[in-house]
Amino acid sequence: MFRSSLRRCATQARSAATAALLTQTRTALPAVRRQVLTSRSSIAAISRIASITRAYSTEAVAEQNESESAPSAEAEPQVRFADLQGIHPNLLKPIINDMKYDTMTPVQAKTIQPALKGTDIVAQAKTGTGKTIAFLLPLLQRMIEEDSTLADRNARRQARSDDIRGVILSPTRELAEQIAVEARRLVSHTGLVVQCAVGGTDKRSMLHQTRRQGCHLLVATPGRLNDLLQDPGSGIDAPNLAALVLDEADRMLDVGFERELNEIIKCLPKPEEKVRQTMLVSATIPDSVIRLARNMVRANDFEFVQTIPENESLTHDKVPQHIVPVSGWSQVFPSLFELLEREAATIKETPGAMPLKAIVYFNTTALVELAGELFYQQRQNAKNDGSPYFSSYVMQSKLSQQQRQRAADRFREARSGVLLSSDVTARGMDFPNVTHVIQIDTPRERESYIHRLGRTGRQNKEGQGWLIIPNSSVRSARRMLQGLPIQQNSSLSSAETDVAGGETTPHHEKTKALFGALPRSLLATAYMSMFGMATDKLGMAEEVNEWTRLGWGWEKPPSVSHSWAQKLGLANAPGMQFSEGGQRFGDRSGGRFGDRSDGYSSRESSDPFDSMASNARRDDFGRGRSGGFGRGGSSGGRSGGFGGSRSGGYGGKRSGGYGGGRSGGYGGRSSF
């Protein structure tokens, strides 16, 4: 019933829109636009024109890609904040006078006016499109409408921790902090008090500040808010809640917050006791988000706002994507260093080019820690011998909130540098001017690849995507990334060198020396972490054991316990070394970042909700769309398409394709 009502609405809107467009003339179009911009009902109708039940696959998360051939990009109406009706002047002052914003982004223009009507909102919007202000302004306005005294700065004195009027939920600490900063800027001319409650920070300190200063708007992560509401001694309550916002709703479900969300709703006033506005914002609309919407929004008083145009490309077609296959892990880090040095040199020789600013993604926290130490050693050596080096930053879940925030701020402010990260920065985090996204090994899910790639090519700036994968991951990469416009790249000599056959390069020798200077416990922990996500564990064992010998200079790989190996099916794997007393080498990491590590155990790397795959529409990756993220047919048939059916495609059926069926294609072995 929920979905069918959306479809009826979409059909009616399409019919009305088509009829209107046929009768409009080119000369009348500017007047029509002006009329649309000043009419709430018109904008609301526009938001329903798109197919509102269209569940974009998660490549919709990739940042806005305005194709030169798309006429809608040129015709996008400009709406000025100063022309907004129904917003208190004290909320507009900081936007216009302090932030110096004049016109809204398309997402803001489509979202703000429908939300001001007070109906519940389900909005599909990408990150990096100004959506934070799009939901903040209506939320703050509703709070002021219900209590006009909040528009005056004197209201700060009456703020209380047990009378919260607005709540915003975010899936990550970093995104919650960003939203809180933006909210504080918007309320600077009002009496509204904003507080932030996230996991990984001192709860007692947060409660002390909130009780002392009061709180009207609370920005929180679901886990911490649920903890506060369940704790009778916290003093946190929202009996007069005016509005609730769930940002990145799909991501909240992805990381397993559904239980916390349901418990939070039980702690809030029932709709029949206190009417509140709920705004649910999501980059994708899989079945899980629709199910959440059924539970949280008012079925008889909601509006779906589609901010992604039908003719907008859902892929990062403008971002070149390269795959670098290597025969084993011994070539991964030498290839990474060679790529960074080459790209930095190329940029330096290109007039007007932005300096190199790269994010390198790893699949485990232990590998992020290992890479952080490796880059530190490389930088220390470079200062002595004068070779190129990079300022590096580390972001992973084992770090404290303060360490993560400090790293994020430093990389955000840096003109150039390399951020070594787990998936904690793949969504929501905004880092300007990222030129390169480099992914090491195949991500866990197709969505992760898209989310990570979305950190570059933002705001119409240029960017590049690189994927370096060892042989053991080729099969899973071909299956997972089928149809994507990824091109094989063989320009890195470190990737083409036969290390097992005795060949070497300067980058191999330098990297081997760097590994030799790292703590053995750190290397052992990284070694063990790599088996957790491997589908071919025996193949992984062969590769990483070879890596310890050829890449680290060890005679034997780290020792592991028999019980650990038994659980992973590695008890009979050739080359494995077992400790006598069942000792697990590397249970504590001695890395520079000072956090205990138990290998493959970080929250973002565990990727809970395995059952989500059966509910989410992850198979809608552009199926049936020419040139989309397809799986065969017209979708995967483009030249250069990863897994497509034509020449040049990774996994293509003809010659030249990575993994092609004829001789000469990399991966033409029987394993494919």
UniProtKB/TrEMBL annotation:
Catalytic activity, EC: 3.6.4.13
Residue runs in coiled coils: none
Record-annotated Helicase C-terminal domain positions: 339-500
InterPro entries: DEAD/DEAH_box_helicase_dom, Helicase_ATP-bd, Helicase_C-like, P-loop_NTPase, RNA-helicase_DEAD-box_CS
Catalytic reactions of this protein: ATP + H2O = ADP + phosphate + H(+)
Compositionally biased residues, Gly residues: 624-672
Protein role: RNA helicase.
Domain note: The Q motif is unique to and characteristic of the DEAD box family of RNA helicases and controls ATP binding and hydrolysis.
Similarity comment: family membership: Belongs to the DEAD box helicase family.
Protein name: ATP-dependent RNA helicase
Organism: Fusarium acutatum
Lineage: Eukaryota, Fungi, Dikarya, Ascomycota, Pezizomycotina
